[in-house]
Amino acid sequence: MSITTDSLPVAPRLAPALSVGWLGWVRANLFSSWLNSLVTIALAYFIVKYAIGFVDWAFVNAIWSVPNDAAGRPDTSSCRDNKGLGACWAVINEKHRFMLFGTYPYEQHWRPAVVCVLFVGLFIISAMRRFWRWELALIWAAVLTVIAVLMWGGVLGMPYVPQERWGGLPITLILATFGLAFAFPLAILVALGRRSKLPAIKALCVLYVELIRGVPLISLLFMASVMFPLFLPEGMNIDKLLRAQIAIILFAGAYLAEVVRGGLQALSKGQYEAAEALGLSYWQKTGFIILPQALRLVIPPLVNTFIGFFKDTSLVLIIGIFDLLTAGKTAIIEPMWQGFAVEVYVTIGLIYFVFCFAMSQYSAKLESELNHGRRR
Amino acid sequence: MSAAETLHSSVQTNAPPAISLAGVNKWFGALHVLRDINLDIALGERVVVCGPSGSGKSTMIRCINRLEEHQQGKIIVDGIELSDDLKSLDAIRREVGMVFQSFNLFPHLTILENCTLAPIWVRKMPKKEAEALAMEYLERVRIPEQAAKYPGQLSGGQQQRVAIARALCMKPKIMLFDEPTSALDPEMIKEVLDTMVMLAETGMTMICVTHEMGFARQVADRVVFMDRGEIVETGEPTTLFENPQTERLQLFLSQILRGH
Fold it and tell me: Helix, strand, or coil here: A248?
């Protein structure tokens, strides 16, 4: 009250322990009322119970390898006894080569392995903005050529491997990479076409999008694999993988086109008018002003669609192409390994997760980097 | 006054008009937005277009570089008639600069890139040259130090001055201003008007839709008053403002003056 107490220097004190730091956070967020406390305790009980159960299964009680029996085949009896208690990672240990590369000749597995590394390298380079120059197209062409040579072989002393024997991760990466690399430019053209003033072009683009979106990917794959060859002249045959690839490109193109169109519509009319008033031609306006802004706006739904299609490539199993998922399923077809599907699917899920999570992290980074100028 | 008169008389030569609108009509659906517009603007002339909102003044100047299409009549800009021919449209847009109410800078490009894009790609100017030119105009609108920033980092007045510099970098013969100060805070209006006055002093042909009567008095050779899609009155600013002939202009002026 009095002046003297007001002006007295106050010794610095620590903030009350119960309202700051982790203790304060816990109190404010987890135990703010008796109902919250109850929910917190119940959830904590289940989380701890199942987390411990999972750690026990996945690590503590897991079997990492199995001995061979007299005939030289793996003896999985220890795994069978352990069923329900611990994971049998021995199946991965034993079968990982088949899961990753399918029926590709065993002694040539280094080739698809190098292909996978090349793909990942290509993704990383393409993700770096300082490589976003036209030379990147050359790099892509070169790497894809090397990949084709490695997969097929038949030159440089590498034996020829027909496409029917390819399988596993390289197939998934090929389908996803080519699929999105071709579908994306196609989608941009279709999205632009759908906003065109020319009625024929507009109708064609609307027809394409609505037709493709109206049918399931599976039926499109069936058509590509079963019906399409019927229309080809006698004796002519287009590679099955290529047909599936085209089906995926067409399908992804239609979905991506709608995403891109959303971005085009989100731009204010003033941007179009300003570009026109400066005398820019249609393609200059589109390339310099409209697309760079529209695509930035739709990075989240775009990556969403990319991730969706990366996983949708697994549907090619229905037309007998050995992608990563199918190879995994086939790997455990031998009697001694039957019953260990969970371990295989967890592993394959992990591989898919790594790729998809990388995509989503990259998109978040790209979004924050590219939108620096727009921040208000 | 006498200086303005000599300037005014100097543009009354026999040279063909920079812009000529003859019998121009336009409809938005059933709405008749431009009614039989006849207007000739000489090279070097500064025209201010005013009128109540919805009177068709923005639509009229947007017809001049064909951001809007007219349905009847003839518009000739710089000797070229506006038609569906894309070549002639490109030629006209190269010579006509435009400044918008909402600036419409490109937010993903820096200020310098905003200014150099069209000279490089439309005028095919070498990049170095275009950058030097852009810096020259940014200096003239007094913001060269902002060249490396993005539009979002600038104030409204600064953005509009960049928009003027961007249009000038194309070295247009004619400049259109569509309510350039209407979206600005009061304290920023002056800096943009000063830039426009400075531009007027260089002898640029200007058509400006604005409610800034002070600006009209200071620089306009002629004021065009529009209402309900028609040109109601035209004349020198002092005559028009001090001695309005029609009731509609009297009403408009009284509303404008009350507002200020």
Answer: helix
Q: Are B241 and B223 in contact (CB under 8 A)?
A: yes
Which member of A279, A284, A288 has the closest CB to residue B170? A279
Average pLDDT over residues A250-278: 93
A376 secondary structure, DSSP code: -
A119 — pLDDT class (breaks 50, 70, 90): very high
pTM of the full structure: 0.82
At A292-309, the pLDDT tens digits run 999 988 988 999 999 998
Interface residue B105 vs chain A (CB under 8 A): yes
Put the strands of the sheet holding B72-77 in their side by side order.
B31-41, B19-28, B72-77, B80-81
Whole-complex ipTM: 0.88
Return the amino acid letter for A19.
Answer: S
- CA–CA distance, B80 with A311 (Å, rounded to integer): 57
Residue of chain B whose alpha carbon sits nearest to that of A285: B118
Decide if A276 and B67 are in contact by the 8 Å CB cutoff: yes
Beta-sheet pairing, B230-235 with B222-227: antiparallel
Set of chain B residues whose Cβ sits within 8 Å of the Cβ of A372: 150
- Whether residues A372 and B150 touch (CB distance < 8 A) is answered with yes
The helix or strand, by DSSP H or E, that contains position B33, with its residue range, turns out to be: strand B31-41
Cβ proximity of A186 and A249 under 8 Å: yes
pLDDT in tens, B208-221: 999 888 899 988 99
Give, in order, the Cα–Cα distances in Å from A268 to each of A238, A273, A276, A293, B23.
45, 9, 13, 10, 32
* Contact yes or no for A277 and B98 at CB 8 A: yes
Lowest mean pLDDT among A270-284, B9-23, B116-130, B191-205: B9-23
Question: Between chains, do A279 and B107 touch, taking CB under 8 Å as contact?
Answer: no
